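Notes for week 9. Today we move from apo structures to complexes. The key idea is that a small molecule is not decoration. When we ask for a structure prediction with S-adenosylmethionine present, the ligand SMILES becomes part of the input, just like the chain. The input block below holds both the sequence and the ligand string. Read it once before you look at the output, and try to guess where the molecule might sit.
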Amino acid sequence: MNAFSTDWLALREPFDREARGAASGSFDLAGLAARLRGGDPALTVLDLGCGTGANLRVLAPRLGGVQRWTLADHDPRLLAALPGAMAPWCRTHGLSVVTGEGGLSFEGAGLKVEVEMLSCDLAQPFDAALFGCHRLITASALLDLVSAQWVDRLTRCARDAEAAVLFALSVDGSVEWRPALSGDEDVHRLFAAHQRRDKGFGPALAGDAVQVAAARLASLGYDVAHAASDWHIDGRDGAHSIVMLRAMIEGTAAAVQKQDPAFTSIEGWVARRLERIESTTLRVGHRDLLATLP
Ligand SMILES: C[S@@+](CC[C@H](N)C(=O)[O-])C[C@H]1O[C@@H](n2cnc3c(N)ncnc32)[C@H](O)[C@@H]1O
């Protein structure tokens, strides 16, 4: 299993939120919600690889009104942590929350949202009935983990359901460390190769994800728009950014070591990066993609 920790998802969430804020001007999500809802009272949304619900926390306020979400993931630890991640967010946003068996609901500030949690392995054949009852199919930080074959299956399923598709935060393959240091290029080459390894869905698309999905969706008749949602992490911004930079340095080194155990210069690269961490900035290129049927 390709496991993501609750700590990592919580650490990256503010950077994800800021990155998606930068892309949000390119998509009229309230208008999209009104169109998708049609005559129905509730907008139905399926979130694939939901983790602890970060995508819900970004999208629900932007979509607005009455919503019914199904949050799907194969990791029981993340699904179990989801209500705990929702509670403080609801408090901060002045929303009242009720947690029940297998789901929760929250409301206030022009929102009324019901959430069902679904434990399922998305690498297995899709349940067409599940897709068929949702108007918006979304995922954040998932598309770069999957294969071209998976994108084919998913987009065909979405088309059959006549659903809109929103893939947020897919890496585009660009990584910019400042200041640049010796070893950056070799490390990036090995890191990029590691990103393409099978994450449970076949060879991962990594930096090609948005391009492949956009072409596939366009061939199925979708109008496709995408916008940059880069992470900008600046060591001068304080403790949280330093912790994130350290996680990126150590995570990159772990991936590089797995990709090429003979690449011993990684230790020197980590030491040089950590020495300058407080004056380091890192941009990690991402894109958000929205596909709608005319
Ligand atoms: C990078 S995390 C993103 C989580 C969340 N969407 C977010 O933005 O914080 C990828 C998510 O995909 C889930 N995932 C990976 N492989 C999966 C599979 N085969 N079936 C279902 N979920 C999967 C992981 O458990 C994890 O929650």
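The radius of gyration is 19 Å.
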